[in-house]
Automatic annotation (TrEMBL):
Known function: Catalyzes the reversible isomerization of glucose-6-phosphate to fructose-6-phosphate.
Gene responsible for this protein: pgi
Annotated protein name in UniProt: Glucose-6-phosphate isomerase
Transmembrane segments: none
Active-site residues, as the UniProt record annotates them: 351 (proton donor), 382, 510
HAMAP family membership: G6P_isomerase
Family affiliation: Belongs to the GPI family.
Protein species of origin: Shewanella cutis
GO MF: glucose-6-phosphate isomerase activity
Length: 545
């Protein structure tokens, strides 16, 4: 057993998990439950009262957090300690939203000045492009941005741009290309005019196959459509920590925006990786996004554990994963602009906490990161919510909704809100056999049939959910919301004693993919791998089944 599962608190939580009354009873016995189990900070309101939790549960979970030295671990992250131990890196995405007056030391150097310089460089670039001073090779202003990147160098900019659609004030269009499938970039290029298109290649390492290949294709298209080598500087920019490689690739040094080793890919939208966002919403709005995240950082660093939103959310999710065998967690956004957020949180959490050994290499004897998935309300209600209500798996849910819509038409938003709140209520209270029978009392069915149908209509309820609200979706509230989930992920990793900041599993896939590529292009059929891999490669080489 690991130290964690041996601990008295872990054992106490395990015993306690068997004795929690149904949430219906918890609500009935305490009319102040909503008030007691909700909190608001940084423009966000969290209702966590619909959880299988009593005051004792919360006490025990917070004791577990204290025993795991969560406080000290939070301090270590903010202080720039090397907490990504396998890659020997500090984890300082929080420095990207720091203020000018702060001083944050990484590897012996204050990094705030370079963060500010990069923001200023972004500002100049955004101003130049959006004020139409930046001209393409035929003298026309830029109308379209193509952001090429993958993983953290893609999802953050894409999802945040989508979420902040009401704030697109610059008149530019932005297209995102990630997948190495040639169809993705080909379909985009069909829509574009090389004279007015600006490509931004985003790759921290400048070594990611998909991004390099897509950028080479974009460059070849640009040259084939009439641009010359000397025009490339007017149409290609890059964001990378590998400036030498970007220059070698042919990107003009002035158009290269720096990144740093102390920013993980999935935490990088706050850096120049967010350039496509800034080009769409303008720098003032981009800075407001940073400000929202910075407010959440301050809350996370300073609020007592019992009033700390990322801590409460992280510990409650861990509660279900470790003590109720919940294998997944669903994120349901009741706002069309936030439809991409579940995919963003999926990458954030699953790449961070999909780990099986502790920091010292011991195999864990407890579940770590769950599968994160989700979608847009109310669409899911007519599909997978059935399983949430009546399936055999326990799936804790987060419901996210702004109180005010950017598009307040008729009764739409009232209906959206009623669906959101109605779902959390249904998940919590369920429907008893007696209630189901009562509903059927006026039907013409026989008593036997009524009983049968009633059994099918029973919903156990007691399904946990959090509800997160904000006044309105703004750059600032979105910044707070994303930072909340970043820190929630950190909290869980800290308790599980895993490294939430490396991704060796993903790296292996990259290495083997390159090896397969060599075998696909080799003179002879593949024979050296396992029979399945050889067989698949050889089928591909032949091009037919
Ligand atoms: O920005 P890069 O170096 O191209 O990497 C892209 C992505 O690849 C990963 O390393 C693994 O998929 C992510 O963490 C990262 O965001």
């Amino acid at each position: 057993m690991t130290i964690l599962t041996q601990s008295t608190t872990w054992q106490a939580l395990s015993a306690h998990s068997q004795n929690i009354p149904h949430m219906r009873e918890l609500f009935a016995s305490d009319p102040a439950r909503f008030t007691k189990m909700s909190l608001s900070s940084c423009g966000l309101f969290l209702d966590y009262s619909k959880n299988r939790a009593t005051p004792e549960t919360l006490n025990l979970l917070l004791t577990l957090a204290q025993e795991a030295k969560l406080d000290a671990k939070i301090k270590a992250m903010f202080a720039g300690d090397i907490i990504n131990t396998t890659e020997k890196r500090a984890v300082l995405h929080t420095a990207l939203r720091s203020t000018v007056d702060q001083s944050i030391i990484a590897e012996g150097q204050d990094i705030v000045p370079e963060v500010q310089q990069t923001l200023n460089k972004m500002q100049q670039f955004v101003t130049s492009v959006t004020s139409r001073l930046w001209k393409g090779y035929t003298g026309k202003a830029i109308t379209d941005i193509v952001s090429i990147g993958i993983g953290g160098s893609f999802l953050g900019p894409k999802i945040v741009s989508q979420a902040l659609r009401p704030y697109w004030i610059t008149g530019l269009n932005c297209h995102f290309v990630a997948n190495v499938d040639g169809t993705s970039i080909s379909e985009k290029l069909k829509l574009l005019d090389p004279e007015t298109t600006l490509f931004i290649m985003s790759s921290k390492s400048f070594g990611t196959q998909e991004t390099l290949t897509n950028t080479l294709t974009a460059k070849a298209w640009f040259l084939a459509k009439g641009g010359s080598q000397s025009d490339v500087a007017k149409h290609f920019a890059a964001v990378t920590s590998n400036v030498a490689k970007a220059t070698e690739f042919g990107i003009d040094a002035d158009n290269i925006f720096p990144m740093w080793d102390w920013v993980g890919g999935r935490y990088s939208l706050w850096s120049a990786i967010g350039l496509p966002i800034a080009l769409l919403i303008g720098m003032d709005n981009f800075r407001a996004l940073l400000k929202g995240a910075q407010q959440m950082d301050t809350h996370f660093a300073n609020a007592p554990l019992a009033e700390n939103m990322p801590v409460i959310m992280g510990m409650l999710s861990l509660w279900y994963g470790n003590f109720f065998n919940a294998q997944s967690h669903v994120v349901l956004t009741y706002d069309h602009y936030l439809r991409g957020l579940p995919a963003y949180f999926q990458q954030l959490d699953m790449e961070s906490n999909g780990k099986s050994v502790t920091l010292n290499g011991t195999h864990v004897d407890y579940s770590t990161g769950p599968v994160i998935w989700g979608g847009e309300g109310t669409n899911g209600q007519h599909a997978y919510h059935q399983l949430l209500h009546q399936g055999t798996a326990l799936i804790p849910a987060d419901f996210i909704m702004p109180l005010q819509s950017h598009n307040p038409i008729g009764e739409h938003h009232d209906q959206l809100a009623s669906n959101c709140f109605g779902q959390t209520q249904a998940l919590m209270q369920g429907r008893t056999l007696d209630e189901a029978l009562a509903e059927l009392s006026k039907s013409t069915l026989s008593d036997e049939e009524k009983l049968l149908i009633a059994k099918h209509k029973v919903m156990q309820g007691n399904k946990p959910s959090n509800t997160l609200l904000m006044d309105k979706l703004t750059p600032e509230t979105l910044g707070s919301l994303i930072a909340l989930y970043e820190h929630r992920t950190f909290v869980q990793g800290a308790i599980w004693d895993i490294n939430s900041f490396d991704q060796w599993g993903v790296e292996l896939g990259k290495t083997l993919g390159n090896d397969v590529l060599t075998r696909i292009g080799a003179d002879q059929e593949a024979t050296a791998l396992d029979a399945s891999s050889n067989g698949l490669i050889n089928l591909y080489r032949r091009g037919k089944i």
